[in-house]
Amino acid sequence: MIRVLVAEDQAAVRAGLVLILRSAPDIEVAGEAADGEQAVALARELRPDVVLMDVQMPRLDGVSATRQVVAEELADVLVLTTFDLDEYVFGALRAGASGFLLKNTEARDLIAAVRTVARGEGFVAPAVTRRLIAEFAAKPARASTADPAVLDSLTRREREVLACLGEGMSNAGVAERLDMAEATVKTHVSRLLGKLGLRSRVQAAVLAQELGIQRP
User: Fold this and answer.
1) Rg (CA), the chain
2) Would I find Phosphoprotein among this entry's keywords (predicted)?
3) Higher pLDDT, 112 or 81
4) Which of the two residues, 120 and 29, has the higher pLDDT score?
């Protein structure tokens, strides 16, 4: 069972999310939080597999709450919001969120995203991925705190995998692109995250975009 903590300040929306998640036979709603502070506290107490985190919440916003949950390695975080591209997206991804989903997502896609994140794969809504890439492509001079030197520790193959992550590709997609086994892709992803000091493949995707790493 995939144990999920739902963090959403609007009671009606939260109830709807819980209803959707409970319709999946392999998902258990471990708890509900009405604000960011409660989300962090319950994540510490319940240790869910995934926290479904709203961005805009009282007391502690979703980005700050995500940062705490990820830093303490309490769970993977799937961020949920009505905004498809603004500071919340970049803030959430840099905070270590494993996925980013829009609130108007269909129920089946929400469940699929939770399953994907629970498997250890990042998930960003396709529309958001396209706009993220377009944003970086349109602003090549975008200020970045990333140092290209961090890539020196990567092997050629790991750089190729990182470039694919920058396109928002899944493990299966990377495996097909680079003609390797999916299990091998997972190994490369794990190693490059360790070398780069990153907590999620989505952070790796953002880094790849910031540094302009080209696909193989």
Assistant:
1) 17
2) yes
3) 112
4) 29
Q: What is the mean pLDDT of residues 102-130?
A: 82
Pairing of strands 50-54, 27-33: unpaired
- How far is Cα 78 from Cα 69, in angstroms, rounded to an integer? 11
Longest dimension (CA), the chain: 49
> Residue 141's pLDDT is what?
45
In the DSSP assignment, the letter for residue 56 is S
Alpha-carbon distance 135 to 141, whole Å? 11
The whole model's pTM is what? 0.74
For residue 30, the surrounding DSSP H or E stretch is strand 27-33
Residue 129 above 70 pLDDT?
no
H or E segment to which residue 162 belongs: helix 156-166
Looking at residue 120, its amino acid is G
Distance, in Å, from the CA atom of 114 to the CA atom of 17, rounded to the nearest integer, reads 12
Cβ-based neighbours of 142, under 8 Å, separated by 6 or more: 135, 136, 210
Residue 127, both tokens: 């529309």
SS3 breakdown of the chain: % helix, strand, coil, rounded to 5? 55, 15, 30
In 3D space, the residue among 174, 173, 161, 172 whose CA is nearest the CA of residue 207 turns out to be 161
Contact by Cβ (8 Å): 149, 192: no
CA 170 to chain centre: 12
| Euclidean distance between CA atoms 3 and 99, whole angstroms | 16
